[in-house]
Amino acid sequence: xxxxxxDSATGGCSAAVWADGRILAYEAAPHxxxxxxxxxxxxxxxxxxxxxxxxxxxxxxVTNGPGHFTGMRAALAVVQGLALAVQRPVIxxxxxxxxxxxxAPDARRGHRVLxxxxxxRAEPFLQIFDADLVPLGPAIAMMADDFAAGAPxxxxxxxxxxxxxxxxxxxxxxxxxxxxxxxxxxxxxxVVAALAASRPATRDPVRPFYIHPxxxxxxxxxxxxx
Length: 226
What we know:
The chain is α/β, with parallel strands linked by helices and about 230 residues long. It is about 30% helix and about 20% strand. It has seven helices and ten strands. A five-stranded mixed sheet has the order 3-2-1-4-5, with helices on both faces. A five-stranded mixed sheet has the order 8-7-6-9-10, with helices on both faces. A hairpin with a 2-residue loop joins β2 (about 15-20) and β3 (about 20-30). The radius of gyration is 18 Å and the shape is elongated.
Protein backbone atom coordinates (compact mmCIF):
# COMPACT_ATOMS: atom_id res chain seq x y z
CA UNK A 1 0.00 0.00 0.00
CA UNK A 2 1.22 3.49 -0.90
CA UNK A 3 0.02 6.51 1.05
CA UNK A 4 0.72 10.22 0.79
CA UNK A 5 0.48 11.92 4.19
CA UNK A 6 0.13 15.66 4.78
CA ASP A 7 -0.02 17.82 7.88
CA SER A 8 -0.40 21.59 8.10
CA ALA A 9 -2.68 21.95 11.10
CA THR A 10 -0.57 23.25 13.98
CA GLY A 11 2.07 25.67 12.78
CA GLY A 12 4.22 23.55 10.48
CA CYS A 13 3.90 21.71 7.21
CA SER A 14 5.13 18.21 6.42
CA ALA A 15 4.52 15.66 3.68
CA ALA A 16 5.57 12.02 3.39
CA VAL A 17 5.18 9.04 1.08
CA TRP A 18 4.72 5.77 2.99
CA ALA A 19 4.86 2.37 1.29
CA ASP A 20 4.38 -0.93 3.14
CA GLY A 21 5.99 0.29 6.35
CA ARG A 22 8.80 2.32 4.77
CA ILE A 23 9.11 6.07 4.21
CA LEU A 24 10.06 6.68 0.58
CA ALA A 25 10.25 10.48 0.87
CA TYR A 26 9.70 13.15 3.50
CA GLU A 27 9.92 16.92 3.82
CA ALA A 28 9.02 19.33 6.61
CA ALA A 29 9.15 23.09 6.95
CA PRO A 30 7.49 25.92 8.88
CA HIS A 31 4.83 27.70 6.88
CA UNK A 32 3.69 31.28 6.69
CA UNK A 33 0.29 32.77 6.19
CA UNK A 34 -0.28 31.13 2.80
CA UNK A 35 0.04 27.46 3.65
CA UNK A 36 -1.27 26.31 0.28
CA UNK A 37 1.64 27.89 -1.56
CA UNK A 38 4.08 26.02 0.70
CA UNK A 39 2.44 22.61 0.58
CA UNK A 40 1.66 22.12 -3.11
CA UNK A 41 5.32 22.31 -4.24
CA UNK A 42 6.24 20.17 -1.23
CA UNK A 43 3.85 17.43 -2.35
CA UNK A 44 5.33 17.53 -5.86
CA UNK A 45 8.85 17.21 -4.44
CA UNK A 46 8.15 14.26 -2.15
CA UNK A 47 6.34 12.40 -4.92
CA UNK A 48 9.28 13.01 -7.26
CA UNK A 49 11.76 11.76 -4.63
CA UNK A 50 9.60 8.69 -4.09
CA UNK A 51 9.61 8.07 -7.84
CA UNK A 52 5.82 7.88 -8.01
CA UNK A 53 3.00 9.54 -9.87
CA UNK A 54 -0.04 10.56 -7.85
CA UNK A 55 -2.04 7.86 -9.67
CA UNK A 56 0.25 5.24 -8.08
CA UNK A 57 -1.06 6.06 -4.60
CA UNK A 58 -3.63 3.84 -2.90
CA UNK A 59 -4.89 6.48 -0.49
CA UNK A 60 -4.16 9.90 0.96
CA UNK A 61 -4.02 10.92 4.62
CA VAL A 62 -4.33 14.32 6.28
CA THR A 63 -4.66 15.81 9.74
CA ASN A 64 -8.15 17.27 10.12
CA GLY A 65 -7.79 19.03 13.47
CA PRO A 66 -8.10 20.33 16.02
CA GLY A 67 -5.64 22.98 15.01
CA HIS A 68 -5.13 26.34 13.39
CA PHE A 69 -7.93 27.28 11.03
CA THR A 70 -5.93 28.44 8.00
CA GLY A 71 -3.37 25.65 7.79
CA MET A 72 -5.85 22.92 8.60
CA ARG A 73 -8.39 24.04 6.00
CA ALA A 74 -5.69 24.54 3.37
CA ALA A 75 -4.40 20.97 3.79
CA LEU A 76 -7.92 19.54 3.64
CA ALA A 77 -8.67 21.47 0.46
CA VAL A 78 -5.44 20.42 -1.25
CA VAL A 79 -5.77 16.73 -0.33
CA GLN A 80 -9.44 16.48 -1.20
CA GLY A 81 -8.83 18.20 -4.53
CA LEU A 82 -6.04 15.73 -5.27
CA ALA A 83 -8.20 12.80 -4.17
CA LEU A 84 -10.94 13.90 -6.54
CA ALA A 85 -8.45 14.13 -9.41
CA VAL A 86 -6.95 10.65 -8.89
CA GLN A 87 -10.07 9.01 -7.42
CA ARG A 88 -8.47 7.84 -4.18
CA PRO A 89 -9.88 7.80 -0.63
CA VAL A 90 -8.76 10.30 2.02
CA ILE A 91 -8.15 9.05 5.58
CA UNK A 92 -8.45 11.69 8.33
CA UNK A 93 -6.15 11.57 11.36
CA UNK A 94 -6.62 13.97 14.26
CA UNK A 95 -3.70 16.10 15.34
CA UNK A 96 -3.91 14.80 18.90
CA UNK A 97 -3.66 11.14 17.93
CA UNK A 98 -0.86 11.90 15.47
CA UNK A 99 1.16 13.64 18.19
CA UNK A 100 0.54 10.80 20.65
CA UNK A 101 1.57 8.20 18.06
CA UNK A 102 4.81 10.09 17.41
CA UNK A 103 6.14 8.88 20.75
CA ALA A 104 8.28 5.75 20.92
CA PRO A 105 6.47 2.73 22.46
CA ASP A 106 9.08 2.48 25.22
CA ALA A 107 8.35 6.07 26.27
CA ARG A 108 4.64 5.28 26.55
CA ARG A 109 4.99 2.09 28.55
CA GLY A 110 3.54 2.36 32.06
CA HIS A 111 2.10 5.82 31.36
CA ARG A 112 -0.99 7.55 30.13
CA VAL A 113 -0.20 9.71 27.13
CA LEU A 114 -1.59 13.23 27.26
CA UNK A 115 -1.49 15.04 23.92
CA UNK A 116 -1.55 18.82 24.42
CA UNK A 117 -1.72 21.34 21.57
CA UNK A 118 -1.52 25.12 21.81
CA UNK A 119 -4.90 26.32 20.51
CA UNK A 120 -3.82 29.97 20.34
CA ARG A 121 -6.44 30.60 23.01
CA ALA A 122 -6.28 30.26 26.77
CA GLU A 123 -7.38 26.60 26.70
CA PRO A 124 -5.08 24.04 25.07
CA PHE A 125 -6.51 21.14 23.09
CA LEU A 126 -6.10 17.95 25.14
CA GLN A 127 -6.74 14.21 24.88
CA ILE A 128 -5.67 11.27 27.06
CA PHE A 129 -4.60 7.91 25.60
CA ASP A 130 -3.42 4.73 27.24
CA ALA A 131 0.04 3.30 26.56
CA ASP A 132 -1.32 1.50 23.47
CA LEU A 133 -2.81 4.77 22.16
CA VAL A 134 -6.40 3.81 22.85
CA PRO A 135 -8.30 7.04 23.68
CA LEU A 136 -9.39 7.28 27.32
CA GLY A 137 -11.73 10.18 26.67
CA PRO A 138 -12.72 12.70 24.03
CA ALA A 139 -10.65 15.60 22.80
CA ILE A 140 -11.34 18.71 24.87
CA ALA A 141 -10.24 22.33 25.27
CA MET A 142 -9.54 23.25 28.90
CA MET A 143 -7.39 25.56 30.98
CA ALA A 144 -4.27 23.83 32.27
CA ASP A 145 -5.11 24.40 35.94
CA ASP A 146 -8.69 23.22 35.49
CA PHE A 147 -7.56 20.05 33.77
CA ALA A 148 -4.97 19.33 36.45
CA ALA A 149 -7.51 19.89 39.23
CA GLY A 150 -9.87 17.29 37.77
CA ALA A 151 -7.40 14.93 36.13
CA PRO A 152 -8.46 11.31 36.59
CA UNK A 153 -6.40 9.01 38.77
CA UNK A 154 -4.29 6.34 37.16
CA UNK A 155 -0.85 5.81 35.69
CA UNK A 156 1.55 8.77 35.49
CA UNK A 157 1.14 11.12 32.56
CA UNK A 158 3.69 11.59 29.84
CA UNK A 159 2.72 14.78 28.05
CA UNK A 160 3.48 15.45 24.39
CA UNK A 161 2.78 18.43 22.17
CA UNK A 162 3.63 22.10 21.92
CA UNK A 163 1.58 22.81 25.08
CA UNK A 164 3.23 19.99 27.05
CA UNK A 165 5.27 22.14 29.43
CA UNK A 166 2.40 24.27 30.71
CA UNK A 167 0.19 21.20 31.25
CA UNK A 168 2.98 19.28 32.96
CA UNK A 169 3.68 22.16 35.36
CA UNK A 170 -0.02 22.35 36.26
CA UNK A 171 -0.22 18.61 36.90
CA UNK A 172 2.89 18.59 39.09
CA UNK A 173 1.57 21.57 41.06
CA UNK A 174 -1.49 19.46 41.88
CA UNK A 175 0.64 16.51 42.96
CA UNK A 176 0.00 14.48 39.82
CA UNK A 177 3.05 12.64 38.43
CA UNK A 178 3.82 13.91 34.93
CA UNK A 179 6.78 14.34 32.61
CA UNK A 180 7.30 16.06 29.28
CA UNK A 181 7.88 13.56 26.50
CA UNK A 182 11.09 13.58 24.50
CA UNK A 183 9.13 13.58 21.25
CA UNK A 184 8.07 15.99 18.49
CA UNK A 185 5.59 18.60 19.60
CA UNK A 186 3.68 18.70 16.32
CA UNK A 187 2.07 16.12 14.07
CA UNK A 188 4.37 14.50 11.52
CA UNK A 189 3.21 13.43 8.05
CA UNK A 190 5.15 10.15 8.38
CA VAL A 191 3.08 9.22 11.42
CA VAL A 192 -0.12 10.42 9.75
CA ALA A 193 0.48 8.16 6.74
CA ALA A 194 1.37 5.16 8.91
CA LEU A 195 -1.78 5.56 11.02
CA ALA A 196 -3.90 5.80 7.88
CA ALA A 197 -2.61 2.45 6.61
CA SER A 198 -4.58 0.47 9.19
CA ARG A 199 -7.86 2.36 8.92
CA PRO A 200 -10.88 1.62 6.76
CA ALA A 201 -11.10 3.65 3.59
CA THR A 202 -14.28 5.42 2.50
CA ARG A 203 -15.04 7.96 -0.19
CA ASP A 204 -16.85 10.23 2.28
CA PRO A 205 -15.69 13.87 2.38
CA VAL A 206 -13.25 14.60 5.21
CA ARG A 207 -14.51 17.36 7.47
CA PRO A 208 -12.44 19.53 9.81
CA PHE A 209 -12.56 18.52 13.46
CA TYR A 210 -13.23 21.55 15.62
CA ILE A 211 -13.35 21.75 19.41
CA HIS A 212 -13.85 25.50 19.42
CA PRO A 213 -16.12 26.62 16.57
CA UNK A 214 -14.20 28.49 13.88
CA UNK A 215 -13.97 32.23 14.38
CA UNK A 216 -14.57 32.84 10.67
CA UNK A 217 -18.16 32.14 9.65
CA UNK A 218 -20.04 32.84 6.44
CA UNK A 219 -22.72 35.50 6.73
CA UNK A 220 -26.27 34.26 6.94
CA UNK A 221 -28.54 35.33 4.07
CA UNK A 222 -30.27 37.82 6.34
CA UNK A 223 -26.95 39.52 7.13
CA UNK A 224 -25.41 39.41 3.67
CA UNK A 225 -24.42 42.80 2.32
CA UNK A 226 -26.70 44.21 -0.35
